Amino acid sequence: MSPDPERCAEAREWLVRAQHDLLAAQALLGTRPTLSDVAVYHCQQAAEKALKAFLFWHDTPFRKTHDLEELGVQCVALDASLDSLLDKISTLTPYALAVQISGSRCRTGTEPGRGGGPACRRGPQGRGPAAALRGQPGIYGTNLRRLMS
Fold first, then answer.
1. Which domain holds residue 80?
2. Does this model's pTM top 0.90?
3. How far apart are CA 135 and CA 142, in angstroms?
4. Residue 1: what pLDDT?
5. Is the four-CA dihedral 148, 15, 120, 124 of positive or negative sign?
6. How far apart (Å, rounded) are the C-alpha atoms in residues 69 and 92?
7. What pLDDT digit, counting tens, does each position of 81-110 carry?
8. What is the CATH number of the domain that holds 142?
9. Element housing 88 (H / E)
10. For residue 147, how many C-alpha atoms fall within 13 Å in the half-sphere facing its CB?
11. Of residues 147, 139, 146, 142, the one with CA closest to residue 13
12. Beta-carbon-side half-sphere exposure of residue 144 (alpha carbons within 13 Å)
């Protein structure tokens, strides 16, 4: 049985948009000064769209969320080989929401009403935004690459 053409087109569109986010991130890392915070945001968006493409391809409903761990758990339920990516991509979730700067304090959408000061601009566990990406393999797992062919 061949896959539904509409479902194929929709999954492919999610992956094309994810690829555009990765290209944007790569371009932003080449700027001077480097715009790593915005680049990591686009990496998070790429991962989110790739996971949603996988879920859409498998006709699995998902709620509107930016939580990569939540989406990843759903993907792993469909394909256990994706489990090794779960910890790696979940570190990107805090970058889903734009940082709002108010005076010398900032807030992220993950900490409503709490000012984080300079630490919130540094990302999870006080590391710089690019730390979440260092040493990580590509966002797409082998199974997601197959969707693009």
1. 5-96+127-148
2. no
3. 18
4. 58
5. negative
6. 9
7. 999 988 888 889 888 875 333 333 333 433
8. 1.20.120.330
9. helix 83-90
10. 29
11. 147
12. 28
9-43: burial string, b at 16+ Cβ within 10 Å, e else: eebeebbebbbebbebbeebbeeeeebbbbbbbbb
Query: Is residue 19 domain-resident?
Result: yes
User: Is residue 63 included in any domain, yes or no?
Assistant: yes
Q: How many domains does the chain have?
A: 1
Helix, strand, coil % (nearest 5) of the chain?
A: 60, 5, 35
Which pLDDT value is given to residue 129?
40
pLDDT-flagged residues of the chain (< 70) = 1, 98-149
Q: Indicate whether 81 belongs to any domain.
A: yes
Residue 42, both tokens: 């686009």
At 105 the three-state DSSP class reads strand
Question: Is 122 a member of any domain?
Answer: no
